[in-house]
Design a protein that fits this description.
single chain; alpha/beta; 2 domains; two-stranded antiparallel ribbon; elongated
Length: 202
Amino acid sequence: METIKNIVFDFGGVLMDWNPRYLYRSYFKDEEEMEYFLTHVCDNVWNREQDRGRPFAEGIRLRVEQYPRYEEAIRLYGQRWGEMLKGEIPEGVALLRRVKAAGYRVYGLTNWSAETMPIAYERYGFLRLLDGVVVSGEEKVIKPDPRIYRILLDRYGLKAEESVFIDDSPANVEAARQLGFRGIVFDDAGRASAQLSALTNV
């Protein structure tokens, strides 16, 4: 078994608390209508295309054409996106700081729009601890596509067998495992911490 040298972190759901409901609860007066909007209008499938590199302006234009009665709400998705980003996830950031202090190299691999990534960089100083980052919106490919993991490995000269990948999505973690990473699903902070300790002894 290869010695672990690198820890790779997802961002949303591991290091940062992002949820469009933080914005839209103050816009919609009715919770049911908000949920309809977020599951049928500006839904996860639509948002993933911005993560894949589609400009927000184009994504918003397409949705306004399809759902004109929600035009104001749709435009807010781009205009007030920062309000969806609530804060850091303390347990995830603690893991990042712990392994960085222990001498491991730490990286980010995230499905995130290239347009909104600067907001996170400005807001969260802990991102400066990372030795490198791969952002899906810049690469035009998203997890769990194996290509984005290979971009990370190639760009920074990493070996999958020497790396741990942490993500809140089981599908993303499984894709990493298929390439040789050790994988941890960040669905319970305590369990994730214990699993990382077992692999790194920190």
